[in-house]
């Protein structure tokens, strides 16, 4: 097996809970993914779309509906909340920007269904090798593959969170693979991390289907004390500005966030996550994203 990570990389991963790997993808590969992402944006047809937005506020109105929850085996489009008008009750919302610029994210089965993203996820030896090299999972399963757009001027904030809250397994096991398709800077909304927070941030709540039958909500994880830290107020956040082609590995417990994009430059990224598929780890039916009989979460290797 080709070694992708140095001893220093592995040490940094253990210490910080994330790892920034510039140049992981060659320019041609990055351009192919970026071109495909732009093509998918151009293909968006607002006609017949339920105008589902993607909101990340933990305490806002519920973020989902059936279109969102049923997206494990589909390629679906989720809109930027600020791309829609706020009409009077009963009146329809309208797009305030051209359709291709209204998208917050596209997901959640790009790794399975889209030939280009499949090539750089499930069919990619270097990606499999980085997961093997990291040694974090015995049998990684891929889920929630998506393009996140951060559109110029309207791309919204992603508040501080850790990913195992959103892709909960018992015990927690999520790892994110986040790929910059364009240069990411503090101006257009690059990621920021609180290094080392994976050692202290517990997974005390989880994102689930609302038991009422519609949408999503958060549920406490039994027996796990919530953290007292006010994460955003702590010192030590580090911006992970990076060039196109960078792979960022994100531990499922590490606190991270990204600001809005007030700039004129888009910030397109592709990301997928991995959870442990080996025995002893449970991904239960409460989770908002559900594998289907015809499309279980595929093994990376
Ligand atoms: O791309 C972003 O700005 C946020 C992504 C993120 O937080 C995640 O993938 O967990």
From TrEMBL:
Database matches in SUPFAM superfamilies: Clavaminate synthase-like
- Key words of the record: Iron, Metal-binding
Presence of the UniProt keyword Nucleotide-binding in the record: no
Keyword flag Iron: yes
Q: Which residues cross the membrane?
A: none
- Cofactors (names): Fe cation
On the tree of life, the source organism's domain of life is Eukaryota
- What molecular function terms (GO) are annotated for this protein? metal ion binding
Q: Where is the signal peptide?
A: none
Family per record: Belongs to the PhyH family.
| Name by which UniProt lists this protein | Phytanoyl-CoA dioxygenase
């Amino acid at each position: 097996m080709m070694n992708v990570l140095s001893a220093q990389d592995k040490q940094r991963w253990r210490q910080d809970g994330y790892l920034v790997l510039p140049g992981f993808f060659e320019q041609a590969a990055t351009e192919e993914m970026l071109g495909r992402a732009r093509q998918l944006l151009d293909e968006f047809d607002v006609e017949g779309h339920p105008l589902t937005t993607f909101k990340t506020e933990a305490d806002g109105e519920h973020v989902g509906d059936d279109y969102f929850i049923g997206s494990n085996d589909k390629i679906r489009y989720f809109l930027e909340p600020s791309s829609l008008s706020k009409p009077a009750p009963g009146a329809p919302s309208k797009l305030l920007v051209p359709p291709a610029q209204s998208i917050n994210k596209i997901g959640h089965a790009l790794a399975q269904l889209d030939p280009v993203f499949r090539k750089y996820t499930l069919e990619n030896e270097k990606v499999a090798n980085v997961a093997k090299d990291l040694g974090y999972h015995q049998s990684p399963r891929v889920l929630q593959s998506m393009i996140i757009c951060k559109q110029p001027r309207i791309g919204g904030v992603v508040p501080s969170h850790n990913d195992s809250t959103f892709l909960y397994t018992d015990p927690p096991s999520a790892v994110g693979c986040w790929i910059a398709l364009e240069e990411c800077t503090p101006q257009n909304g690059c990621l920021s991390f609180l290094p080392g927070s994976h050692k202290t941030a517990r997974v005390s709540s989880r994102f689930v289907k609302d038991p009422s039958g519609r949408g999503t909500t958060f549920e406490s994880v039994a027996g796990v004390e919530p953290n007292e830290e006010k994460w955003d107020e702590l010192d030590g956040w580090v911006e992970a500005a990076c060039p196109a082609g960078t792979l960022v590995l994100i531990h499922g417990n590490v606190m991270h966030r990204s600001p809005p994009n007030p700039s004129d430059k888009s910030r397109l990224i592709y990301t997928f996550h991995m959870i442990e598929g080996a025995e002893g780890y449970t991904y239960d039916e409460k989770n908002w994203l559900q594998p289907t009989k015809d499309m279980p979460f595929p093994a990376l290797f």
